[in-house]
Design goal:
Length: 424
């Protein structure tokens, strides 16, 4: 093995990287000034990967919605009957897991018993134990989760927004699935997904905090040497022909909300752009025109159309970006009209861009003290761009008003989906 050392310029920290013989990717950022360690162990497998060719088959296999999240739960099931959370707690660590559209992550944090915790994380994630009985038991637990989320207006709005904006792409479906879909999940589904996506060559470990990089890599390498994995083959995942149009342009949903909640989403075709730079530019643009210091925010609050800030978020597929702006307002139609008059039509000045660049630089420096923020940034880079970005400052400094205006001149903000929750 030959550990690589690079500088994360924007954090002014060192990044140590290694790829083991079995394909497992390791990234470590030591920070001696903190008394804690944060470890994430992730697979490039999330809710959107619903149809694929399993590692031991030649034909596509489609699984029910929610399998990735269901699998996250079941990986904690141990044949020995041990509770991984209790083990981590005994070693002085907090543990958790999460599933997104594109990845599933298992994690722990704690300052002591690092070797024991790291080995246990690797061991329990790499020892699946699924039976008909424990799968059936989990269905009841996850069904309760889904019911709780269905009662939350924020989730109702989010799920309806994605479902109405996308036509074919599975990003439109809830990460946790539906009551109907999880009822169909079998242990065979779980093993097919696990054996295909949880191969070390499709996984990566990120460690930030007070650790010795060489000793840490030696621990991981020794752990992996004692395990056998089938030869890895490139995973083939079904692609979807997603049109530019939204599925449902407007919908009002009856919901028990004291103040109407609304969301307006812009579906943007990104096929002809450098997605890395486009996302940075559009994030910057939406922040400047809709953020808490924007003219629109000031106008809406002065007119008493909103009391809280506008909130915006983005999801991305291979072909489209979806920017969603949500808010609460009794006069939601007026707010929507003002947002329509702003997005894509209002331009920002070179001075505003420069101020935002300074803010982005400051944000990088601020995150350099946070081992969780550093870890999450590395993971986000790997999932979104396939590699760790070593110098965000260079990207930030290269942003210019001409390129931003060229993007705004050529992309379309015409495909809009609006969802309103009210109690009428």
């Amino acid at each position: 093995m030959s550990m690589k050392k690079n500088k994360l310029v924007h954090f002014d920290l060192d990044l140590y990287s290694e790829k083991l013989e079995n394909g497992l990717e390791i990234n470590i950022v030591p920070k001696k000034t903190v008394n804690n360690i944060y470890v994430t162990f992730s697979t490039k497998y999330g809710s959107i990967h619903d149809e694929f060719i399993p590692i031991d088959q030649d034909d596509y296999y489609k699984v029910p919605m929610g399998v990735a999240h269901f699998l996250e739960h079941k990986v904690f099931e141990q044949e020995t009957g041990e509770d991984p959370f209790a083990i981590f707690s005994k070693y002085g660590a907090d543990a958790n897991a999460n599933t997104s559209n594109y990845k599933t992550t298992y994690l722990f944090s704690g300052p002591s018993n690092f070797k024991e915790n790291l080995n246990f994380l690797l061991d329990f994630v790499q020892a699946p134990y699924f039976t008909d009985d424990n799968v059936l038991k989990e269905k009841g637990i996850i069904a309760q989760e889904i019911k709780m989320l269905q009662d939350q207006p924020a989730w109702q709005l989010y799920d309806a927004t994605l479902d109405n904006s996308f036509v074919n792409h599975p990003i439109k479906y809830p990460i946790g699935g539906t009551l109907e879909s999880i009822a169909k999940i079998t242990k065979e589904d779980l093993y097919k997904c696990y054996n295909t996506f949880y191969h070390p060559a499709n996984m990566f470990i990120t460690i930030t905090g007070n650790v010795n990089p060489k000793e840490t890599i030696d621990i991981i390498a020794q752990n992996q040497q004692g395990k056998h994995f089938k030869p890895f083959k490139e995973i083939v995942i079904k692609t979807y022909d997603e049109p530019d149009n939204v599925r449902v342009p407007y919908e009002e949903i009856k919901s028990d909300v004291p103040i109407p909640k609304a969301a307006i989403s812009y579906k943007i075709n990104i096929q002809n752009y450098d997605i890395n730079r486009l996302r940075i530019y559009l994030n910057l643009y939406f922040q400047l025109i809709l953020g808490s210091t924007s003219l629109l925010d000031e106008k809406l609050k002065k007119a008493k159309l909103i009391s809280n800030n506008l909130y915006y978020d983005a999801v991305c597929t291979d072909d489209h970006l979806l920017y969603t702006v949500d808010f609460e307002s009794e006069k939601y139609a007026q707010v929507i009209d003002e947002i329509k008059k702003t997005v894509g039509k209002v331009r920002i000045t070179p001075e505003e861009l420069k101020r935002r660049q300074k803010s982005l630089r400051s944000g990088c420096l601020y995150r350099s003290d946070n081992i969780y923020g550093i870890n999450n940034k590395i993971n986000s880079n790997i999932i979104n761009y396939g590699k760790v970005n070593l110098d965000e400052f260079a990207i930030i400094d290269s942003l210019n008003i001409e390129e931003l205006n060229d993007i705004l001149d050529h992309i379309s903000f015409k495909e809009i989906s609006i969802v309103v929750l009210n109690d009428n």
